[in-house]
Design goal:
single chain, eight-stranded mixed sheet, alpha/beta, 8 strands
Length: about 300
Amino acid sequence: MHGQNAEGRPDGAAASVVVPAHNEAAVIGRLLAGLLADAEPGEFEVVVVANGCTDGTEQAAAAFEPGVRVLSTPEPNKYRAMRLGDSAAGHFPRLYVDADVELTGASVRALAAALAEPGVHAVGPERHSPMDGRPWTVRWYYEVWHRLPVVRAGLFGRGVVGLSREACQRIGELPEFMGDDLAASLVVRPDERRVVSAAQVVVHPPRTLSDLIRMRTRALVSTTQIASGTQLADAAAETRTTRADLTRVLREGSMAQLPKVVWFVVVTLLVRRRAARAIKAGDYRTWLRDESSRLPAEAADAQR
């Protein structure tokens, strides 16, 4: 059985889980319930950082106390919310989890166990993206995206990344980035990171094409920011989709994949056009997120 120290932190917790949350009242309960469902008291230290929230996120997370510690800051900034969570968390390994995904305590254990292996400094779970109720414009894009080699091997786009103490120190030496998960994936060498098959995260994809484009635009702007004059520039460049990647998708599938690959290219070109405006303006702060997956299906369908 785990107790707590004088600062309210669990003694001997297997890992610290930091959850930055900006206006996530509709979904954060789903995440926290899954994290704590099969956890012993104090097994995981869970720190939610409600940042710039106006919708009751803090109150929704506080409903899970004492298993969850809730911090609040008026500034809507994910990177700084994560650092605030770091200052409050007391254990390693450290897991950073987006508030809109689903993750179980069993998956936290599997990720922590992987980080205990010699030479492993960053881990992520296998992703599952349910496509029920998504239009073909979204389904086709993801069918191709999930097949890309860099997407299968990278830790970004999973909503969960686990880091060792050493990897956290490396991240701390970097400037502020919009793409925190991509930076975490790139700050370690390929042989130092693992996608852990025993852990699974549910990542809810957009319900509309417009939200897909918004989300992918942010991802491209984030990649460009990291690739612009930092020590991660070369690694970031390797995350871009190439013609060879798409050819490989076709070769591994069948000609039935051709229309989907063509659609993937069309969406990618639309995203690049939109991202170019933000990049030209040097806007690496505007957070374009998918709102449709956070809404009930009926409300999202009405927005199509």
